[in-house]
Amino acid sequence: GPVLRDINCRFAERGVTALVGRSGAGKSALASVIAGLNEPTAGIIRIGGVDLAELSAADRARMMTLVFQDTELFAGTVGANIAAGRPGVGVPEIAAAGRTARCDEFIANLPQGYDTPLRAGAPNLSLGERQRIAIARALVGNAPVVIFDECTASLDPEAERAVHAAIEILSQSSTVVLITHRLGTVRNAQRIIVLAGGRIAES
To answer: Which of 19, 76, 137, 147 is deepest in the core (most CB within 10 A)?
Structure first.
């Protein structure tokens, strides 16, 4: 049968909407449909009134940024990883996004700062540091919709506070969808949607 049923909801422009529920409730499934990673078998998903099905893959990519629990970074400098959100962006904007995402706290200790080369996956950086780079990438890209999938589940309290501070700033210009099973992480969300069995149980 269908993974999601009778879903009818609206995500306000700018601000944070949290998707919560037990494992298997349908949170990631809903996020993957919103992001266009999976097509709905019925129904329509619109952004700004435009049906996602009418957009090209490139247009969808420009409108969406995804930050997963295990953020992928590629081989290249720290600055290049941030600039991947918008190729050709200048150094001042990269540095500004890094400051906003609280990356400066650890980039200052790297041998060459933003010019420090990283290996694929950046194993020399912690999970929280990689996620903050991903948030800086989202800030540079200026995507209208940013989806965080369980991004704080494995972070220590200090790293989690830094990530949430960056999310709060990002939500001033983007619609943020925050997927989590931890209610404590969504206390500042403007709206909370509770999923159970593939349906919206509460909003």
So the answer is: 19
163 sits in the region (left: phi over 0; alpha: psi -120 to 50; else beta) called alpha
* Residue 115: φ, ψ to 5°: -90, 5
Contacts of 172 (CB under 8 A, 6+ apart): 14
Please name which of 40, 30, 21, 24 lies closest in space to residue 201, comparing C-alpha atoms.
21
Q: Do 196 and 2 contact (CB within 8 A), yes or no?
A: no
Per residue in 95-119, pLDDT (tens digit) is: 998 988 888 889 999 999 999 999 8
Burial zone of 56 (CB within 10 Å; 0-12 exposed, 13-18 middle, 19+ buried): exposed
- pLDDT for 125-172, tens place per residue? 888 888 888 888 888 888 889 998 877 666 677 777 777 887 888 888
Q: What is the rounded CA–CA span in Å between residue 21 and residue 35?
A: 19
